[in-house]
Prior knowledge:
Shape of chain B: globular
Order of helices and strands of chain A: HHEEEHEEEHH
Oligomer: heterodimer
CATH superfamily of chain B: Response regulator
CATH architecture of chain B: 3-Layer(aba) Sandwich
Helix content of chain B: 40-55%
CATH superfamily of the largest domain in chain A: GAF domain
Number of domains of chain B: 1
Number of helices of chain A: 5
Helix content of chain A: 55-70%
Strand content of chain B: 15-25%
Largest sheet of chain A: 6 strands, antiparallel
CATH class of chain B: Alpha Beta
Number of strands of chain A: 6
Order of helices and strands of chain B: EHEHEHEHEH
Largest interface: A-B, 19 and 20 residues
Number of domains of chain A: 2
Amino acid sequence: MKDSQIYRVTYEAFSRFSTVLMRCRSFEEIGDALRVNLKYLLNFHVFRVSFNWEDYFIHITVSAAGSSVQVREQHDYLPHEQQLLEKGRPLLWTDLSVLGLPAEFRLAEAEQGQLWGWAFNREKCQILLSVLAGNSKDFSGRDVTFVKLIAENLESKLLELCLFQVLDKKNEVISSINENQQRVIKLRTQQIAEKNERLMEISILNAHQVREPLSRILGLINMIDHGSSPEVIQEKIMPRLRRSSEDLDEALQEVITKATSELIELKA
Amino acid sequence: MKKIMLVDDMEITNFITGSLIQMIDPAYAVHDYTEPMEALSEVATVQPDIIFLDLNMPEMDGWGFLDEMQQQGLGQKVYILTSSTSELDRQRAKQYANVAGYLVKPMEKDELAGILLMA
């Protein structure tokens, strides 16, 4: 193939990779996208990205065995990534035995493994890329251009997902505050309804208590209307009228005292 | 002559009802009680044609009185005479077969005369 054709094919593969990546809605989907699409852009045994933004540490490792995704609040950098962070520039390792790499990075002796690493420091976040290549999966200097493009794409996508997660968490907090308020409102409404009911009961009770002596007064007045003799009025009705009026007064005073104390109690 | 029993813890109420009955016809025999227990114990011997019964009384209220009558198999005609205008009380009174009416104090003389005639 001519160079121009190779570039066209690679460009199409990259375009496809970008589109798939853009559509990812979770870190796991990013892992899958890398596993499926990255092999058309680069030759590698293992591809690893470590991303950090604030409290988010995301590590994605892609190999022939599959992809693994870790989302942590504390970093889980591999030793060679620590070196990348310290140096802050691209590094190449050819003696892999001293790096203490995990199992999926292990290659046959004949492969003569090479580990390439890049550290990209942005304003708010940081992204580390590692590519493990070898004789059968040759990585050339020309591929570095794509590594940088991949880093840019991954960085913006990972940051976007982190921000969504933060938003989701804030939404959850707001929802729980809302729910709590609803509960408080419901409780308060219920308490007010209970107090209202209690007040109604008191007012009915009070009305009856007052009505008893009043009904006697009305009954006694009826007797006068029905033509009781002056002697009966003077000797029998008047003292009872006085007594009933006093009872009425007493009942009213009692009602006032009771209602006042109930009111104070209900306000508390 | 017809016998009327008045049961109300307020002497004044019994005085009013009793006086009205005497005004209507002095021939009626009025037995008045301010102690419901005492009244209950004499229902069987007095055999009243009508009992006027208050609801709100200490010790034994009107409902207790009616329950006791039921227990003892006393079926005398009872008119509840109360100052309570409560619809709940009115409904509750309907549950007793021997309760002939629910009257709210003060009772009018004409109303009383009508009741006595039907006794």
